[in-house]
């Protein structure tokens, strides 16, 4: 007998748990995750969450900053919802028990973040994501939602154009199971591990995006990959934007605060794509320090660092042996966030009936070509809540359908073939190869020649995926099998990123082409849609929704 739920949420980070909490208690909600919920990658978010909660601030100002940050590729109807509803969601989180840092008057404190015209980033020291994940997990337990922890979803069940549930692998015992649902919400996070080095955890392989893509849902704007300006060299460990928000400086080998050249007004608090490109340029032109630039917090003083940035202090000492109270931290741009994802409307609904998505795996498009720091956490809360609400409404109007068992049988055969293969390729090595191709050919600066060469390399790797073989053929906690299944997600998404980037002949937000250095609103003010086909991604386009904020020049 298949397991059944009214609403099934795939992913247990902030977006997934917020969606689950939004489902009314009279409905049967399930949450499935390949790790325990408090190990979801949302815990790694450090700096904060944006909302215009001060009387002197406004959602209109937040909206303008977000549209500008997106390089005018964000859909303004979705951005307006995000910015209008953000203050109410912050208050709701506080009522749940969120322990936001406070200012001297006892109000929720807010710090500066890049690209914002007002300090509107609420935070919990430099562990904001960690605090919010544990907060929502408490709510999930209180709600008595059924949590399938350490289960891996291998396929959506789509019958007659309607999503009816998932097929999932119980990692503990190796059994494949059909889990039926009237509505399914994908909230599986980003795809940072498509690249070799990333701020993302090892679990961030873009599985939810790949599930939707294989089921026929287009992926939107996949060429827009965010590089965070401050990560630790070689490890990719994130050093929060909050470090610059609290007053940290960036300087090069000559001791120059080089952002003065690139963003004279906003300096270190320009948008992430601008700061990352500036750092890259400094390093490229020989003004770096062993392939890095330096982040200086010394002038903030020990008391402020230990109060506002204690985790950064600890990470810097642990991983690069530098005490930020005494010396600057070596940092470099690193892959951090996916602006693109599963195409949804403003309620989280995808083009497939019964299938919804929210958070980083979705593209509603509030981030467009570049995300502002602090907006991602807010998106998980606002659109997680909206997707959960709409999925519940849909489930209440939907009757369960009998199972054919067809998808379950297909998945048993597919996974059985991998387990039974005696000789072949190793998933880990293939993953490294794909990650290196993406890093080398689809990084911060992209040229036609480099991208075409990268596409050729990906095409050579693709058929090798069908020859993956495992050392471990056991059932209990076969993580090598999970790696092998994840590699298919990684390849699907790598191809979508590559295809979309190679044809977009402009520079906009995080997509920067020296051969096409200007933004081209005449030809490229449009969203890229990647549809799966036997020959690889098939591209189409759709217009950007512009409502309140007219096109303008983007300067910091």
UniProtKB/TrEMBL annotation:
Residue ranges occupied by any Fumarate reductase/succinate dehydrogenase flavoprotein-like C-terminal domain in the UniProt entry: 431-556
GO biological process terms, semicolon-separated: anaerobic respiration; electron transport chain
E.C. number: 1.3.5.1
Subcellular location(s) of the protein: Cell inner membrane
Annotated catalysed reactions: a quinone + succinate = fumarate + a quinol
GO MF, any single term: electron transfer activity
One of the record's GO cellular component terms: plasma membrane
Top-level taxon of origin: Bacteria
SUPFAM superfamilies according to UniProt: FAD/NAD(P)-binding domain, Succinate dehydrogenase/fumarate reductase flavoprotein C-terminal domain, Succinate dehydrogenase/fumarate reductase flavoprotein, catalytic domain
EC top class, as a word: oxidoreductase
Cofactor(s), names only, from the UniProt record: FAD
Membrane topology value: Peripheral membrane protein
InterPro entries (UniProt xref): FAD-dep_OxRdtase_2_FAD-bd, FAD/NAD-bd_sf, FRD_SDH_FAD_BS, Fum_R/Succ_DH_flav-like_C_sf, Fum_Rdtase/Succ_DH_flav-like_C, SdhA/FrdA/AprA, Succ_DH/fumarate_Rdtase_cat_sf, Succ_Dhase_FrdA_Gneg
PROSITE patterns in alphabetical order: FRD_SDH_FAD_BINDING
Homology family: Belongs to the FAD-dependent oxidoreductase 2 family. FRD/SDH subfamily.
The protein, known as: succinate dehydrogenase
Organism for this UniProt entry: Candidatus Manganitrophus noduliformans
């Amino acid at each position: 007998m298949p397991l059944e739920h009214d609403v099934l949420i795939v992913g247990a980070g902030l977006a997934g748990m917020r969606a689950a909490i939004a489902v009314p208690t009279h409905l049967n909600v399930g949450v499935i995750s390949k790790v325990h919920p408090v190990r979801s990658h949302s815990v790694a978010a450090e700096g904060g969450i944006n909302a215009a909660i001060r009387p002197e601030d406004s959602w209109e100002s937040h909206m303008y900053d977000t549209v500008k940050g997106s390089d005018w590729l964000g859909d303004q109807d979705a951005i307006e919802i995000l910015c209008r509803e953000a203050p109410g969601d912050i208050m709701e989180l506080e009522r749940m028990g969120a322990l936001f840092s406070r200012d001297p008057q006892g109000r929720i404190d807010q710090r500066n973040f890049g690209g914002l015209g007002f300090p509107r980033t609420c935070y919990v020291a430099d562990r904001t994501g960690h605090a919010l994940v544990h907060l929502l997990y408490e709510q999930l337990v209180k709600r008595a939602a059924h949590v399938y922890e350490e289960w891996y979803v291998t396929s959506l069940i789509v019958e007659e154009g309607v999503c009816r549930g998932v097929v999932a692998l119980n990692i503990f015992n190796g059994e494949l199971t059909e889990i039926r649902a009237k509505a399914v919400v994908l909230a599986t996070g980003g795809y940072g591990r498509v690249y070799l080095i990333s701020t993302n955890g090892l679990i961030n392989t873009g599985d939810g995006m790949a599930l939707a893509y294989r089921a026929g849902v287009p992926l939107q704007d996949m060429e827009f990959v965010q590089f965070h300006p401050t990560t630790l060299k070689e490890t990719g460990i994130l050093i929060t934007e909050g470090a610059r928000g609290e007053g940290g400086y960036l300087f090069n080998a000559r001791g120059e605060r080089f952002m003065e050249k690139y963003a004279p007004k906003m300096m270190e608090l320009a948008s992430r794509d601008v700061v990352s490109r500036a750092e890259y340029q400094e390093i490229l032109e020989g003004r770096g320090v062993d392939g890095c630039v330096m982040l200086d917090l010394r002038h903030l003083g020990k008391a402020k660092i230990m109060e506002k940035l204690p985790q950064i202090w600890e990470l810097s000492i642990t991983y690069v042996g530098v005490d930020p109270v005494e010396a600057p931290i070596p940092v470099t741009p690193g892959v951090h966030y996916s602006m693109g994802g599963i195409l949804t409307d403003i309620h989280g609904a995808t083009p497939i009936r019964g299938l919804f998505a929210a958070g980083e795996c979705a593209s509603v498009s509030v981030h467009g070509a570049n995300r502002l720091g602090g907006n991602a956490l807010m998106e998980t809360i606002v659109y997680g809540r909206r997707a959960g609400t709409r999925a519940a409404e849909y489930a209440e109007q939907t009757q369960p359908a009998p199972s054919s068992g067809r998808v379950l049988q297909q998945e048993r055969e597919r996974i059985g073939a991998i387990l039974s293969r005696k000789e072949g390729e190793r998933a880990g090595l293939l993953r490294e190869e794909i990650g290196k191709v993406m890093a080398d050919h689809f990084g911060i600066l992209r040229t036609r020649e480099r991208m075409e060469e990268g596409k050729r390399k990906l095409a050579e790797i693709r058929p090798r995926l069908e020859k993956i073989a495992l050392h471990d053929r056991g059932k209990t906690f076969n993580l090598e099998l999970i790696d092998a299944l994840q590699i298919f997600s990684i390849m699907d998404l790598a191809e979508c990123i590559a295809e979309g980037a190679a044809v977009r002949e402009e520079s906009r937000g995080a997509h920067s082409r020296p051969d096409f250095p200007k933004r081209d609103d005449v030809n490229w003010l449009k969203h890229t849609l990647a549809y799966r086909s036997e020959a690889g991604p098939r591209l189409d386009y759709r217009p950007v929704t512009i409502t309140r904020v007219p096109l303008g020049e983007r300067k910091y």
